Amino acid sequence: MSKDTHNVQWGEAFLTALLDIREHLERGEKDRELLLKMLKRIGQQNNLLFILAGLAFPEGPGFKYPLKSWPDFDWRSINAIIVERDADGVALVRWGGDLYARRSEASIKGKDIWYSRAIGRDGNTNVYATLAKFSHDFKKPSYQPLVADVRALVNQK
Fold first, then answer.
1. Which helix (H) or strand (E) holds 42?
2. Contact 91, 104 (CB under 8 A)
3. Disulfide check for 151: which of 93, 109, 125, 146 has CB 3.0–4.6 Å away?
4. At CB < 8 A and 24+ separation, what contacts does 44-52 make?
5. Is 127 exposed, middle or buried (0-12, 13-18, 19+ CB in 10 A)?
C-alpha cells in the first residue's frame, strides 16, 4: 500500500464516520447515546487504522518535508499524535501504534531533523524505521504535464 493510498483510506474512513454523525443530527436524532455510539465508532476505526498503518510500513513511511516546515508541522496531517514536547519542540510522536523519537544531526550530509525508532540489528549496526525527515536540502519532485490523449480522457463528460 502506498503512502498516498494509506492517507486516502484513513481520510475516507474518518470522513464517513463524521458524515454519519451529521446525517443523524440533521434528521433530529440528537440522542446523547447515539452520538456517543458514533464517537466510539470513530475511535475504534482510528485504532484499527493505526495498527494497520504500522503493519503496512514496518520500516516507517519515510515522509519527507523541508526543514522550514518542522516548527509548525501539523502532525495530524500524517495521522501522528504528539506524545511529548521539550524546549526544542516535538520530541516524541506515535504513529501506527509505535513511538518515534526526534533525532538531529549537522554533518556533511546536511542539517536535518527526523523521527525514527529502532527496529532491530543488522550485525553490529542498529536498523531504524523513519517516520518523517525534515531536510534543509529538500527538493520538490518535478512533474510532467498530461499528454493530450490522457487530458482528453480526463476531460470527457
1. helix 32-56
2. no
3. 146
4. 45/13, 45/14, 45/17, 46/14, 49/9, 49/10, 49/13, 49/79, 50/79, 50/94, 50/95, 50/96, 50/97, 51/96, 51/97, 52/96
5. exposed
Using 50, 70 and 90 to split pLDDT, how confident is the model at 50? Answer: low
Q: How many domains does the chain have?
A: 2
pTM of full prediction above 0.70: no
Beta strands in the chain (DSSP E): 63-66, 81-86, 89-95, 98-107, 110-122, 125-135
pLDDT, greater one: 108 or 12: 12
Q: Residues 72, 107: one domain?
A: yes
Residue 156 located in a structural domain:
no
In the block, residue with C-alpha cell 501504534: 97
Domain boundary among 11, 36, 56: 56
Q: For residue 34, what are the domain limits?
A: 3-56
